[in-house]
């Protein structure tokens, strides 16, 4: 579907880099199909060295060439970027925005008739384990939706959601790797505290999170049932879980997702 198509990225930051790394690794798209635009020539040099992709400092030139155009800039500069490209974007260009809080209607109002798809991925697309949610704008046909989904499916899992849930996705899986890195870092400190080298403690922590997550996904069991399998009566796991409950870890995680969801909504109002 994407054979011989030109794929553009406006904004060559962390998210674009993660996506490019993942899609090149998946083999779905070749480096020769990609063109990246950024205001930072340093970022462009870095991405060319890393991925051998073409780059340009001219977003209009890129918008004219691209069949699929990823908008991977910060929400705060999205208006400026869209105003720049609107005069040259054709109705056959597929626009894919990954910006937190930027709504389909904002983009559609600026680019009438142009198919727009809103996606909220996370940085784990870089290693083929991303979680992305997708919502289609009114000019995006279902075949466009399938095409964009297939790109994100090549680098992880994809769900289709109503746009009203996009801020919630941003608060949970979009921002979620950040929360999990905090957990891994804390568990690693804990490992050092009980006697491991940092390197060993990091391996024990990260592999434990990976294994537990895989158990949930592969068994389809409720996490509480899997937790029961770990907690021997009067044993160590229930002793540790008791402390986590006393410290309010569960409520802290819920509060974190709610706060990030609210922040995404707030960013969308600007
Ligand atoms: N980093 C993440 O985990 C995720 C980010 N996102 C979304 O991806 C978007 C990008 O985020 P990051 O990559 O983290 O930010 P970033 O700050 O790493 O990258 C943004 C890039 O855009 C460039 N830029 C700024 N103004 C520009 C302009 N006028 N034209 C062209 N390029 C310009 C910057 O030089 C920078 O390289 C945001 O909208 C964010 O909401 C979505 C999901 C996850
Ligand atoms: O922190 C942010 O705003 C972006 C959106 C989702 C993850 N990172």
Structural class: alpha/beta
CATH superfamily label of the largest domain: NAD(P)-binding Rossmann-like Domain
Strand order of the largest sheet: 3-2-1-4-5-6-7-8
Tell me the β content: 5-15%
Report the span from N to C terminus.
36 Å
The helix content, as a percent range, equals 55-70%
Largest sheet: 8 strands, mixed
Flag low-confidence runs.
none
Class of the largest domain in CATH? Answer: Alpha Beta
Shape: elongated
SSE run: EHEHEHEHEHEEHEHHHHHH
What is the correct CATH architecture of the largest domain? 3-Layer(aba) Sandwich
Distinct small molecules: 1,4-dihydronicotinamide adenine dinucleotide, (2S)-3,4-dihydro-2H-pyrrole-2-carboxylic acid
Figure out the total of helices. Answer: 12
What's the total count of β strands? 8
Please tell me the total number of domains: 2
Rounded mean pLDDT is 96
Write a structural description:
The protein is α/β, with parallel strands linked by helices. The chain folds into two domains: 7-166, NAD(P)-binding Rossmann-like Domain (Rossmann fold, 3-Layer(aba) Sandwich); 176-269, ProC C-terminal domain-like fold (Orthogonal Bundle), CATH 1.10.3730.10. 56% of the residues lie in helices and 13% in strands. It contains twelve helices and eight strands. It has helices at 14-26, 41-51, 59-65, 75-85, 104-110, 142-153, 166-174, 176-193, 198-219, 223-230, 236-246, 249-269, and strands at 7-10, 34-37, 54-56, 68-71, 94-97, 116-120, 130-136, 156-160. It has an eight-stranded mixed sheet, sandwiched between helices. Helix 4 (75-85) links the parallel strand 4 (68-71) and strand 5. The longest helix is centred in the C-terminal third of the chain and has 22 residues, at 198-219. The radius of gyration is 21 Å and the shape is elongated. The model has no long low-confidence stretch (mean pLDDT 96). The structure holds 1,4-dihydronicotinamide adenine dinucleotide (NAI) and (2S)-3,4-dihydro-2H-pyrrole-2-carboxylic acid. 1,4-dihydronicotinamide adenine dinucleotide binds at residues 10-16, 37-40, 43, 59, 72-75, 77, 80-81, 98-100, 120-123, 174.
